[in-house]
Amino acid sequence: MRSVPVRARVYILCVALAGAACAAPAPGAHPSWAAVALLTVLYAGCERITGARVVGDRVPRGLGTFFPVLLAGVFLLPPSAAALVAVPGALLARVDREPPWVRRLWRASRLALAAWASARVYGALGGPAAGAGPDFPYVLGPAGAAVLVFSAALTLLDGGVLVTAERVPARTAWRGLFPRSLAPVTVHGLAGLMMAVLWTSPYGPAAALLVLLPMGVSCWAFAQYHRERAAHQATIRALVQAVDLKDKYTRGHSERVGRASVLIARELGMDDDRVEVLRFAGILHDVGKLGVPTRLLRKDGPLTPEERRIIELHPEYGHEMVRGIGFLGEARAAILHHHERMDGGGYPYGLTGPQIPECARVVAVADAFDAMTSTRSYRRARPVEAAVAELKRCAGAHFDPVMVGALTRALERYGWHPEVTADVPEQGGAGTGGAGKGGAEQDAPVPPRVRSAPAPAPVRPGTR
Fold first, then answer.
1. How far from the centroid of its chain's Cα atoms is residue 117's Cα?
2. For 274-290, how does the pLDDT look when each residue is reduced to its tens digit (9 = 90+)?
3. What CATH class has 227-442?
4. For 415, how many CA atoms within 13 A lie in the half-sphere containing its CB?
5. ω before 137 within 30° of 0 (cis)?
6. pTM above the 0.70 mark?
7. Region Disordered: start and end of each range (predicted)?
8. Which residues pair with 399 in a beta bridge?
C-alpha cells in the first residue's frame, strides 16, 4: 500500500464504497438468482481463462475484462444484480503489479459502478424488464445508450485514478480515453445483447454460451498480436540498451528523444497510432550507431573528415537494422532521415523541406532539444529556455518551424523533466576547449552558440 499515494487510496476507497452500495440488493428487487449465479461464475471463469498460460505464455494483461458477459447481465438483470456479476471474478483475477488487493478492489468497484449505471439507463429508456427477452428493433436504442454509459463510466473512473495515482494532470487525464474504450465496448455490447436474446429464447442459457465462442477466438487472436508486439518491443529495448552501452555519452538519450517526439506528435493532434510510431522512431533513431566503430563514438577530440563520413552512415545502418520490424511503419523513414535539414544541408541524402518525411522532422527537433538539455562529460546541460531559443533560431534552415513551434507549446504546457545523464566521469575540464568535444557532440545538428551553464533543475520555458 505504501506505493499508492494517499489521495489515490482515498479515491479508490470512495469508488469501492459506491460500488458496494450499487451491488447491494435493492428493496423490492427480485432478480433470478440462478441467472445471477450463472453469469457470475461465467464471468469469473472468463477472468481465470484469460489469465492462464497459453502455449507457455500468458494472455496480455487487460484482456481479462470480458465485457459480453457483464453487458449481458446489464440487459437481463436489475441494476444491483448486474453490478454484482463483476465482483467475484474481478476480486479473484490475476494481478501482475503490486499491491494486488488494491488493484483487484479497484477493478471490481469500477466494473460494478459501470454495470449499475448502464443498467439504470437501459431500464429508464424502456429496456425490457429483468428476465424479459429484448424486443428487436426497439431494444437497440436503450442498449446503445447503455453501452455509451458503460464506456463513459469507465472513462470517468479511469481518468480519476490517473490523476490521483499516476499524477497525470487533470487537463489531460481523460484525453482520448473515451474513444479508445468505446470501440471494444460497442463490439462486446453487441455480443452481450445477442447473449441476452438467446438466453431468453426457447433454447435457454446454453444457446447463449455459443456467443462466447467467436469472442474467445477473437481474444485469442488479439493475444497473439500482443505477444508478437511484445517480442518486437523486447527487441527494441535490447537494441537501445546496446546503443547506450556502446555510446556512453548518450546514455538515456534515446528514451528522452522518444518522449519529446510524443510531446510534439500530440501537440500536432496526431492519432494514437502515429504517436506510438513516433515514440518508437525517437527511441530507435540512433540504433545505427551499432554499426559505427566504438572508438569514433568515444573519441575525445575533433573528428577528421573521414571519421565524420563514417559517423554519417549511422542513419542508413539503422534503417537496414529495423526494416524487418513491420509494425514500425513510417518510423523507419524517421530513422533514415532524422539528420536531414530543411535547407538541404543534412545527410544522408540532402533532402529539402517537404521532401523530408514528417516523422523525421519531428524526431530531428526532439533529438536536437535533448542533445542540448542533457549533461555530457564535456559540457553541462543548457537551460530549457536556451535550447528552445536555439531551436527557434535554426527553424527554417535546420528544422521545420511547425515542429519547433509544437515542441515549444508542449514545453510551456507540460514542462520538461529530463533524467540528466551525469553518470559519465568528467573529462577534459574547462581547459580542454574545443578538443574536449567527442564524436557524439560533433554529430549533434545544432552548433553550440549559447554558453554552457550548470545543470538546471527542471523548469518551464519563460520561468526561472
1. 28
2. 898 899 899 999 889 88
3. mainly alpha
4. 9
5. yes
6. no
7. 420-464
8. 395
